[in-house]
Amino acid sequence: MFQEILAYILSTSGWVLVSSTLPTDYWKVSSLDGTVITTATYWSNLWKTCVTDSTGVSNCKDFASMLALDGYIQACRGLMISAICLGFFGSTFALVGMKCTKIGGTDKNKARIACFAGVNFLLSGICSLSSCSLYAHRITSEFFDPMFVAQKYELGAALFIGWSGSILCILGGTMLCFSIASSKSRSQANYIYKGTASHISSFPRGQAKPVTQRPPPDYSNSSRMQHFDKNVYV
Question: Where do the domains of the chain lie, and which CATH numbers do they carry?
Fold first, then answer.
């Protein structure tokens, strides 16, 4: 039960971080520095691109058309939305499959549900990790490309939040998947113990079953006559 609770806390925390990554502003950021202060900060996410001047005023422009976007942005959107949906289903099934709850049926069914929830969290972490890594790869490839003459960006805070949430989801999902193996071994041990206890309890208390039982001696008259044949006529 402690393993399942810890796994649920880790995976749910990771899902919350992944969910907060999608609308976060700073996926990539760049700045123009003056002699004393930063004159302008350019930043962008999956939905818009903005510029913030030194006074703190931001001017943003939403992406006009989804079909006109770059392919990597569309892929990152789909992966992040899939990660959030999988994490939601995983948290719901994990509540049903945990042993500390009263729903879900027998322990065997609850273990299967918990394992299915772990698979959902694993897929959620993999989708989020792929999305953040794809976006970061595009940023770094443009930054180190000497032929790229447009505005160059660096990694934003949203990517690190997404990576952290992905790792937590993967860890929690793995622990939930292993909970079904521990449940099977525990049920087999209980079955063996109950079978042994029932076998022992079939005998009276304080008496042990002899290994080999010799037949009782025959004290009938015929046996006596055969054993004491010399004194028969006395």
Answer: 1-25+69-188 (1.20.140.150)
pTM of the model: 0.72
Strand arrangement of the beta sheet that strand 28-33 belongs to = 58-62, 48-53, 38-44, 28-33, 154-155
62 backbone dihedrals φ, ψ, rounded to 5° = -75, 150
Q: Which candidate, 57, 52, 34, places its Cα nearest to that of 42?
A: 52
Model confidence pLDDT, tens digit, residues 9-26: 999 999 999 999 998 889
Question: In sequence order, what are the residues at sequence separation of 6 or more whose Cβ sits closer than 8 angstroms to the Cβ of residue 206?
Answer: none
**Cα 194 to Cα 199: distance, rounded to the nearest angstrom:** 9
Of 58-72, 109-123, 217-231, minimum mean pLDDT range: 217-231
In angstroms, what is the C-alpha Rg of the chain? 36
Contact 97, 112 (CB under 8 A): yes
